[in-house]
Amino acid sequence: MMLLDKLQDKVHEVIGCFPWYKGLIGDETTDYKLQHLPLMTAEILETHYYTASGDPSLAVYRTSGTSSGRRKAIFYSEEDEKHYIDIKTELFGELIAGSGCTRAMADMGTGHAAETALTIFERLGLEKSAIPFELPVEQHIERIRAFKPDLLYTMPSILDHIVYAADNPRAFGIRKIILVGEIATPEWQRNMARLFGLDPSDIIDTYGSIEIGTIAYYSHDLGRYIFADGIYAEGIGTQELGGELRPLGTDERILVLTSNVRTMLPAIRFVTYDVVRDFRPVTVGGVEKQSFGSIVKRVGRELKHGEKISLYDIEQVVYRHLEDAIIRVKVKNNALTVSVKSKSADNSIIPVIRDEIRECIPEIGMMIRGHLLKEIEVILAAGDEPLESGQVKNKKLYYQQQKDRAGVNLSGGILAAIGNTPVIRLGNLFRNSGFGVYAKMELLNPGGSAKDRPALRMIQEAWKAGEIGPGTSIIESSSGNMAISLAMICKYLGMGFISVVDPRTTETNLQILKALDAKIDVVADPDPDTGEFLPARLKRVQQLLAELPGSFWLNQYGNPNNYLSHYHTTMKEIVAALDRVDYLFCSVSTCGTIRGLAEYARDHGLKTKIVAVDAEGSAIFGGNKGQRRFPGLGAGIVPPLCRSDLIDRVVHVPDSEIVAGCRALAQDESILAGASSGGIIAAVKHMEQEVAPGSVCAVIVHDKGERYLDTVYSDSWVQNQFGHSFAAESGDLFDR
């Protein structure tokens, strides 16, 4: 518990970090009284904090919308991160003490808890694993069965769907379940314990928020929630918040928290908007602790549904279309329902409202597509049906696809040619190697590269979710191949495409993009802080999104559909063609391809060694950043999709060997391929003495060489860059 005699220091700390706070408390400089300090409401934080630009050295976590439509930014310093992890590690250690747990799995949504779970498991000495939340529920079950965790850290909504889809949850062998996220009632917890064959005390609910961190945990011994160290809690009524909030029930209070361990948040009297019952102190081990009996609901402008969603934003959507609307919003059985009564409404407005509401919570949309959450439901009530009781009889109009979407074939025409590329043996180049090398010919995709696969899947999933459609302008930062793939697909589906590029993009790629009616936006200068073009390109993407109504960013660097495209297609095709794969060589840039291939190999029990081929000068695997001549191989940052734990070996290749590899591939195999393929050939040669005789090696031939005619295959360019032509050196490097 925070000692109130530390309040003076806390106020000065907050003023030092957030000068605007001084204007809220007036001129008083000494002897601050907690009850006299302002409540930190959503309105104040939206004005001064959530949408502010933070210090780039701080970690930023984002949650769903504010009334302005912008996502909230919550900042953490290194000290905040340390406190968060320390508190949670100590708490989890106490919760599983004596349980015999050795293997822990995190299966949850987005946010701070999800991002730090594996670190906490590691500090506890547990073997760790995590499940991406966007996967279909069937794959969650497959991964739990394969890993066999003793401890499962998850959300009630996800656990609901796992239980519903699993034949026998007891067969998982889980010993402890720690919950985070939505409210978990005692009755729900008892049902779950029975289904998993556990004692009710083996399911432990924790309560926290992205702003404050860990707040409280449920003690089965005391039958109530106990606040974490460093937190001081108050309980207030709705009248203290003002506005039009209804009075609470007799023993109900809204939680207001002050944190003594949070620095980069004005964490004095932070209003949670969560309503608790039986708020009172108790004695724990001879020490007085604050506690409450249960969380019963959320009031105010925000509704808790996995992430926080603003009721204000939902009303804004409806009122944009229906001026005379009466609205009731309800969450029940893990589904969000919006009931609307309006004299001017007709059925055609329902899908429009539903799509716009769904845009408020993009992460929830991904969980819906994975069948981990139910659909958002918009219901148009008849005029004689009262909304107060929440009953809407049988007059329900569910969302249906708009006519302009329904007639579009997302896998027809040229799109049908994406994937199922051949696998061929490189019999000349490696004839004396003692092992077989087989090339997955991704350059034969219609767009000329492996990027066709993720480009198509990202667009298909966004289209199905109602996030894009005919007339949308897709914006992406790309140095070439992804841009060409997106330009091809967008042109076919009737969407615009804007490619944000930098001066390294080849003239050939620019001409291809122009031929496909893509608009090109060139970022001429690198980011001043990092010296890299990628951060500068991403900043430009955000500017364009703000300037252009109807635009959409697919975010190839963080979109899970990037790697899932290869998980579901590429590696499956390689295995079907070769039967056995001992080594898989794959170049890295966004890390989408290699992650999809590696996760498939792991999940299907393959013994394949995954070799990442990176460029010298790339920072992906901790190398020193330096000049890289070829876009699409390496990166100046660690991409969000990177999973280094899935990689068995990293081979860095210099630009000179990339050129030599490309030219050897052309001379010996008549394959005119791009720079990343040359890097892969060089990497195989680097490991030639390590690969056991008789091994089967698969390599990804990523893209066409025609796009490198003015660089890799230009004698004058090579001479200028390296001082020689590589005509002889390629033969020396790849002995035949």
From TrEMBL:
UniProt KW Transferase keyword: yes
Pfam families listed in its UniProt record: PALP (PF00291)
Pathway: Siderophore biosynthesis
Cofactor(s) named in the record: pyridoxal 5'-phosphate
SUPFAM superfamilies according to UniProt: Acetyl-CoA synthetase-like (SSF56801), Tryptophan synthase beta subunit-like PLP-dependent enzymes (SSF53686)
EC number of the protein: 2.5.1.140
Gene3D superfamilies named among the record's database cross-references: 3.40.50.1100, N-terminal domain of ligase-like
Highest taxon listed in the record's lineage: Bacteria
InterPro entries: ANL_N_sf, Cys_Synth/Cystath_Beta-Synth, P-phosphate_BS, SbnA, TrpB-like_PALP, TrpB-like_PALP_sf
Keywords attached to this entry: Pyridoxal phosphate, Transferase
GO aspect biological process, one term: cysteine biosynthetic process from serine
Residues of the Tryptophan synthase beta chain-like PALP domain: 415-701
NCBIfam families: PLP_SbnA_fam (TIGR03945)
Function recorded in the entry: Catalyzes the synthesis of N-((2S)-2-amino-2-carboxyethyl)-L-glutamate (ACEGA) from O-phospho-L-serine and L-glutamate.
Similarity section: Belongs to the cysteine synthase/cystathionine beta-synthase family. SbnA subfamily.
Assembly and oligomerization: Homodimer.
Protein name as catalogued: N-(2-amino-2-carboxyethyl)-L-glutamate synthase
